[in-house]
Design goal:
Helix content: 40-55%
Shape: globular
Number of helices: 10
Strand order of the largest sheet: 4-3-5-2-1-6
Largest sheet: 6 strands, mixed
Strand content: 5-15%
Length: about 280
């Protein structure tokens, strides 16, 4: 039970997923008012989902084609004056035991990702955990791109400027405080176990109650989880909101970020409403 709690705790907060099409509630929200000349849109993405699933939602692709700018968590141009920072990740062979390292290396070597050894000194554990999830999930293991990557690629193909919301300074601070050993254990558990879908996903993110002003109790598992939620979303949102507002004032934006970043009283929907914008859901 403890192992499953650890998996759900990290995967639920770092890699939010949901069953697409389960309910009719939208994960696209239109932002208007407060002096904007054009509407912008928030799209709650599913980080490990195949880009092929976007074919089921032509509205999202039409918004991408009609928007002036694309804003993503990572990738694209910086917004404003952003100082560069070194993001340090400990070598993988210092985090995994010798037997764990061999297991992880053999797992990736057998996949299209290849051996982890060339990346021993500069690998992202969060990225590795996400890759393991993609490989283990049948509908995504052979995918070429995720939601986010495909939208980013498509907007650049259409010569739409794209921008990055995250800052290297914030990412460096988060990496420095990360519990690398615990996340390494999560990766081992994911590789060794065929976990059921409900054991690796968050509660139903399509439930409209999750957009209300109060935080959902089931996400605040304990003090440690509360700290991770704060560090992974609240600080980032404080940096994101001025950038989103700045680009929206210049033209129509598609803001494509993980679905969990839209939720709760600290999410982008409520934060933009507090700034005076009208934010309404778009039916898909």
């Amino acid at each position: 039970m403890k192992k499953l709690f650890i998996v759900g705790y990290f995967i639920g907060l770092l890699f939010p997923t949901a069953v697409l099409g389960q309910k009719n509630e939208s994960v696209v929200w239109e932002v208007s008012g407060n002096g904007l000349s054009k509407s912008s849109y928030l799209f709650g993405t599913v980080h490990i989902a195949s880009s092929q699933l976007l074919n089921r939602f032509p509205t999202v692709m039409n918004i991408a084609k009609s928007s002036d700018f694309g804003l993503f968590e990572k990738g694209g141009n910086v917004i404003g004056n952003v100082q560069d920072a070194d993001i340090y990740s400990p070598p993988l062979d210092s985090i995994f035991t010798k037997s764990e390292y061999a297991l992880v290396d053999s797992f990736f070597t057998a996949s299209s990702y290849g051996s982890i050894k060339p990346h021993n000194n500069n690998a992202s554990l969060q990225g590795m955990a996400q890759a393991v999830m993609m490989i283990k999930k049948g509908e995504t293991k052979d995918q070429d791109m995720t939601f986010d990557d495909f939208l980013h690629f498509e907007m650049e193909r259409l010569n739409k400027p794209t921008f990055q919301l995250d800052e290297t300074g914030q990412m460096a601070r988060q990496e420095a405080k990360a519990d690398h050993r615990k996340l390494a254990q999560v990766i081992i558990i994911l590789i060794k176990n065929d976990l059921k879908e409900e054991e690796i996903t968050t509660p139903d993110l399509y439930d409209p109650k999750s957009y209300h002003d109060s935080l959902r109790n089931d996400m605040m598992l304990n003090q440690e989880a509360s700290v991770l939620l704060k560090e992974n979303t609240i600080e980032r949102h404080e940096l994101w909101i001025p950038k989103i507002m700045s680009k929206m004032s210049e033209g129509s934006c598609l803001v494509a970020v993980g679905l969990a970043h839209l939720k709760f009283k600290t999410g982008l929907i409520q934060l933009l409403r507090r700034k005076g914008f009208e934010v309404r859901e778009v039916k898909l």
